[in-house]
Design goal:
The structure is a single chain. The protein folds into two domains: 23-146 and 275-346, Immunoglobulin-like; 149-267, Immunoglobulin-like (Sandwich). It is an alpha+beta fold. The protein has helices spanning 2-21, 221-226, 289-303, 322-336; strands at residues 26-33, 45-46, 51-59, 68-78, 84-95, 103-110, 118-128, 133-143, 149-156, 168-169, 174-182, 191-200, 212-218, 229-237, 242-252, 257-267, 337-340, 343-346. Residues 1-20 and 275-347 have low confidence and may be disordered. The chain is globular, with a radius of gyration of 23 Å.
């Protein structure tokens, strides 16, 4: 009787292990976000020159003898009538250094100077080349015409924008951010935009006696006509623990119109690491050079304000290679913009 019970127990363990080892490929925890690690983006409204990040966890991956995975990610973008705007596929492979069968990834869409108004559909598919399994998801977005708006908001650990950051940070660490402003008035052949930065505590009370104000002006009529957006960069110091709100207010001083954006910021003291089991570990991906050239060409066309071009760029989330990727992005952005005080303007 004991032998039968022991045999049944062993069989149950084998079946359980086999079921776990052969988990089905799935995509979980899908979120739109501000940057790869920034706070969740609730709205899927898209405007010209915006960037939409979609991050997700891929689970149920098969690994080879070296613990390496081999996947391919495909991103499709279609308008309201189902007409394809663009399609991008790229390989993503690497070693799961912390074990398990999952990793965190992201794709992003960079909007051109004109966005198809109305319903847009984004489809993301992941294929495991080792198990031959595939999984996918769709998200519906709404395209809008240009108006005074904050777009392309991202957060960084450093002032140069090389190391993407979340808004959940330890005290003592600076939190830098970068954004674009679109839809400002250019009819008077000049530009005057102000960005005001304020933080709120958990009760909604303002922490700063006065907001930090950053001013951008352009008086050159030719430069004004070429300027479709303005970059602002700034940052805040995280001097105490708590839950806060970062409020960014943009005002067009020529029309007195304003727009506001608020994002949560959490400052928590570091805690000792404790084993919590296998989670969505990051994967070191390899990006083909042709993808970089593809992105640079499309963004160049969008910035040149040509007729609508499908400007769709995608990249897998990568903790280990982000400095290299950010260095590339900064290199081609510098081709199109120049810095004026604390602002960036397309030239």
């Amino acid at each position: 009787m004991k032998s039968l019970f022991a045999l049944a127990s062993v069989a149950w363990l084998i079946l359980s292990w086999s079921s776990s080892a052969q988990a089905k490929l799935q995509i979980e925890n899908i979120q739109a976000s501000y940057g790869p690690f920034g706070p969740e983006r609730k709205s899927l409204d898209l405007y010209p020159f915006d960037i939409l990040f979609l991050r997700f966890t891929v689970t149920g991956l098969k690994t080879d003898a070296a613990g390496k995975v081999d996947t391919a990610i495909t991103l499709k973008w279609a308008d309201a009538k189902g007409n394809p705007l663009d399609e991008t596929s790229f390989p993503s492979s690497g070693i799961l250094h912390l074990g398990g069968n999952s990793f965190l990834a992201f794709v992003h869409l960079r909007m051109p100077g004109q966005v198809p108004v109305g319903k847009n559909t984004v489809t993301v598919a992941v294929t495991d080349n080792l198990s031959k399994e595939s999984a996918s998801f769709e998200r519906q977005m709404t395209g809008h015409k240009s108006k005074l708006q904050v777009v392309d908001l991202e957060f960084f650990h450093d002032a140069d924008g090389k190391l993407p950051s979340s808004t959940n940070c330890p005290p003592g660490e600076p939190l830098h951010f970068r954004l674009r402003v679109i839809g400002f008035d250019r009819s008077k052949e000049k530009i005057h935009i102000q960005m005001a930065v304020q933080t709120l505590d958990s009760d909604g009370k303002e922490n700063l006696p006065k907001p930090l104000v950053f001013d951008f002006r352009e008086q050159d009529a030719k430069a004004v006509q070429r300027t479709n957006f303005v970059f602002f960069t700034s940052g805040i110091g995280l001097n105490r623990v708590g839950k806060f709100t970062l409020r960014i207010t943009i005002t067009d001083r020529l029309t007195d119109q304003s727009t506001k954006m608020e994002v949560p910021v959490t400052v928590a003291a570091p805690r000792a690491c404790k084993p919590t089991g296998v989670g969505p570990w990051a994967l070191a991906f390899h990006f083909p050079c042709k993808l970089f050239r593809f992105r640079a060409r499309l963004i160049s066309e969008a910035l040149a304000a040509r007729p609508l071009q499908t400007c769709c760029a995608a990249a897998a989330g990568c903790l280990l290679h982000f400095p290299e990727m950010s260095k590339f992005c900064r290199a081609f952005v510098m081709t199109f913009v120049k810095r004026r005080n604390d602002s960036w303007v397309y030239v």
